[in-house]
Amino acid sequence: MNVKNINFESRYKLIISSLILSILVGIGYFSYLVPTWGYFGLESDEPTLEIWSFYIIFATLPSLFIPKEITRPSMFGVWILYVFTYIPMITGTFFDKQIIFNDKITISFCYCLGFWGLCSFYKIKLFKSKPFNVPYRLFWTLYYFLVFTMLAYIVFLYRDNLTFVNILASEEVYQTRFAGQEIQEQSAFAGHIILWLSNAFFPFILCIGFIENDKIKKIIGISGLVILYMTMANKQYIFSIVFIYLIFKLFSSTNNRAKIFRFFKFIIIPTIVLLFCNEFVDIPFVNDVVFALSGIFLFRTLYTSTLMTVYYNVFLENHPYTYFSHISIINKFVEYPYQDQLGIEVGTYFIDIDKFNANANFFITDGLSSIGLPGIILIGFFCSFIFYLFDSFSLNTNKLLGILLISVACVVLMNVSLFTTLVSGGLLFFMLLLNNNNIIKK
Asked: Which of 2, 111, 271, 298 ranks highest by number of CB atoms within 10 Å?
């Protein structure tokens, strides 16, 4: 098979996979999301042929230009963001009636341009930075000392409240989370330390453990994330263990062309199963399990950006933009227009729950909320530049490590600002680590 046919086959698989997933996500909006979680503020529009047609066009359009093969680590990050932010945002834009039809087209067009901007730096040749070359043993000695010092502080702070609650028991999870938040508020550093450990330090150890097949690093990475789960009952900490393992298994094979289809199978198959069970299965015990798993995979992972795009587009119709004043440095020069964090302002506008935080992905938080629709396009290009830097630094080490780390960072990007991801989400930290030649045993 010649190169031209191979390229066509890869692009064809990507288009078909995105088409199937887009249709599933659209069906799930009407059959699962609104009936189950509509009280969060969703109002389904009439699913006319016109709306469905425009939805399919905009949802699948990026499959024509996003990378069809992974030649740089951040290209896989683009796939993740396409599945878990772009398609869900288009879903909420077209299928919620709180956004009028003409606005649906304009908003979706800007989302598409923003996503095109996210791929813009792939035409530019990477630069290779000068690595640090910190010796392997010294690096890991210092790294473990820092990690265990921070973990010891968190364990001491939560010493009377560490508990492993059933991840499927929503009531127990939220009770533990609220209790954990009260303890966290007593310390000026606890929140930052938990974010660094959960988003960067322990995932990095786990990634290296899988690559080196090092049991000790695997145990440390998994145990650390489990302990952090016991403080706040944040399901993302447990989810990240499974997520890192699945991405590692996906890319440990050598067939690069098959990875697109395998990745989409990871998403499409559980989506089909959960949507089917929610609609047609009526067995009490099974229903409880399906409801819990659907809450984690469908609502919290796949449809969060659907809800957030509705929230923020409606909220910003009669509220001011932030003009990037939600960023710590910029708010020294530009006045922040709200009392609370933007996510809390938006969340409590829709839901009457104290301090309900409707945190959204970077397209919405940094783009739409800052300067409106042009901001979506601007932040897409800026994120592409950040990915370009990440890919350049990753030239100094194992490509698989770069893929695993950008995957972890993109999970954070799905829920918060790009600037928060750079600092608290570990993206800058990962770039620094990738610039060391000796982080993996040779």
From this structure: 111
